[in-house]
């Protein structure tokens, strides 16, 4: 039997050289890691190295045993997307409308507290990215810049304001006035925090209200000089919407989280705010139907990223039923555990109008600021 053999030839040196990446390696350890990062989880690994443990744990951690967040991630990973072939995909349009206005991508920035703790520029850096990408940014009541400061820093951003209905309605009105006077277009009422969630990681690290920082945490912070120099040389870390509050932080928490909040309070909110209202923290079809009847413009299916109640439902698992029940009356969004474009695509395929991300962009801010 005749054997076919390869024909030998002299190696092509130009071809060999063309296969080599001749760019100079980065001398910075973090720069090299950032250049190799492929996904949000790679970015999170870099963020963990660049920030104190107390800060990283605050972002990554969830309530109690952190089961709810793990279940959320598992549910997202199990979404199967049916791919059709032989379609023209040469021109892709990812834009959509959110509350009647166009966004270039249905991925929005959720409200997060303590943002300057992760990156010293804080909320304006996130809002600037949202503005450049033509999407929505929601400022938290627990934000470290005020509504007026954010509006001044990034006047072109599409700004929503996250709100809690407080025990004293006059305090709620004062915060709403700040948002209205600063050009915020939408109120996002969070309804899944009648009390603060039990977060073991934060308690162990002393990140409580008021803080009880242990010596071990202080030493861990001292080992991250770039982080603490940036933070402590750029202004006081505070909840800026409550600037001037002259009582302990524990009193502030008791003021914000009102366990007596009811559906009737949404009616009251509609009487004092003329713009759109989005309800965040819906976790059942029944509640979605109830708030839809109250004339709100949108709901965010959310279990607070697993940070409030550790045995709650997984938002993406009830998403199709909620959309079927109320999708023609209100816009339905979702948040919690969105860590990739595939996660976002899966949620949108199941009926979400858009997704909101929180941890994902905070990992980026901790890893390399606005650039990520």
Report on this model:
This protein starts with 12 loop residues before the first helix and ends with a helix. Helix 15 runs parallel beside helix 16 (315-326). Helix 8 links the parallel strand 4 and strand 5. An eight-stranded parallel β-sheet has the order 3-10-9-8-7-6-5-4. Strands 1-2 form a two-stranded antiparallel ribbon. It has a single domain (53-79, 95-202, 227-371), classed as Aldolase class I (TIM Barrel, Alpha-Beta Barrel), CATH 3.20.20. The chain has helices at residues 13-18, 29-36, 40-50, 53-60, 67-77, 115-118, 123-132, 147-153, 169-181, 200-205, 215-222, 225-232, 249-256, 264-272, 285-292, 315-326, 341-349, 359-368; strands at 96-98, 101-103, 107-109, 136-139, 158-163, 186-190, 277-282, 298-301, 331-335, 354-357. The protein is α/β, with parallel strands linked by helices and 372 residues long.
Multimerization status: single chain
What's the Cα radius of gyration? Answer: 23 Å
What characteristic shape results from the CA principal axes? globular
Count the E strands: 10
Average pLDDT figure: 91
Briefly say what this structure is.
This protein has 372 residues and is of the alpha/beta class. The chain contains 18 helices and 10 strands.
Describe the structure using short key phrases.
alpha/beta, 12% strand, 372 residues, TIM Barrel, two-stranded antiparallel sheet
Write the layout of secondary structure elements.
Elements: H1 13-18, H2 29-36, H3 40-50, H4 53-60, H5 67-77, E1 96-98, E2 101-103, E3 107-109, H6 115-118, H7 123-132, E4 136-139, H8 147-153, E5 158-163, H9 169-181, E6 186-190, H10 200-205, H11 215-222, H12 225-232, H13 249-256, H14 264-272, E7 277-282, H15 285-292, E8 298-301, H16 315-326, E9 331-335, H17 341-349, E10 354-357, H18 359-368
Parallel strand pairs: 3-10, 4-5, 5-6, 6-7, 7-8, 8-9, 9-10
Antiparallel strand pairs: 1-2
């Amino acid at each position: 039997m005749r054997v076919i053999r390869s024909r030998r030839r002299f190696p092509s040196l130009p071809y060999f050289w063309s296969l080599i990446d001749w760019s100079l390696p980065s001398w910075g350890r973090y720069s090299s890691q950032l250049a190799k990062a492929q996904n949000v989880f790679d970015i999170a690994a870099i963020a963990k190295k660049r920030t104190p443990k107390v800060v990283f744990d605050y972002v990554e951690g969830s309530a109690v045993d952190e089961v709810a967040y793990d279940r959320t991630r598992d549910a997202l990973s199990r979404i199967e997307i049916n791919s059709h072939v032989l379609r023209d995909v040469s021109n892709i349009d990812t834009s959509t409308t959110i509350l009647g206005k166009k966004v270039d991508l249905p991925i929005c920035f959720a409200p997060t507290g303590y943002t300057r703790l992760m990156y010293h520029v804080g909320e304006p850096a996130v809002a600037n990215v949202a503005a450049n990408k033509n999407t929505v940014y929601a400022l938290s009541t627990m934000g470290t810049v005020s509504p007026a400061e954010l509006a001044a820093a990034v006047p072109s951003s599409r700004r929503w304001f996250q709100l809690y209905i407080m025990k004293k309605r006059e305090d709620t009105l004062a915060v709403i006035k700040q948002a209205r006077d600063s050009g915020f277009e939408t109120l996002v009422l969070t309804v899944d925090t009648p009390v603060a969630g039990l977060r073991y990681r934060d308690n162990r690290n002393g990140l409580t209200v008021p803080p009880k920082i242990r010596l071990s945490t202080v030493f861990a912070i001292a080992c991250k000089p770039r982080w603490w120099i940036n933070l402590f040389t750029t202004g006081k870390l505070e909840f800026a919407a409550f600037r001037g509050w002259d009582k302990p932080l524990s009193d502030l928490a008791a003021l914000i989280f009102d366990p007596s909040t009811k559906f009737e309070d949404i009616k009251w909110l509609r009487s004092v705010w003329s713009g759109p209202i989005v309800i965040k923290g819906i976790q059942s079809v029944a509640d979605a139907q109830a708030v839809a009847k109250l004339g709100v413009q949108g709901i965010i299916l959310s279990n607070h990223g697993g940070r409030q109640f550790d045995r709650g439902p997984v938002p993406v698992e009830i998403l199709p039923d909620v959309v079927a029940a109320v999708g023609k009356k209100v816009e339905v969004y979702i948040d919690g555990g969105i860590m990739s474009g595939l996660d976002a695509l899966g949620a949108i395929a199941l009926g979400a109008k858009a997704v909101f991300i929180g941890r994902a962009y905070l990992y980026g801010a901790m890893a390399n600021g606005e650039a990520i």
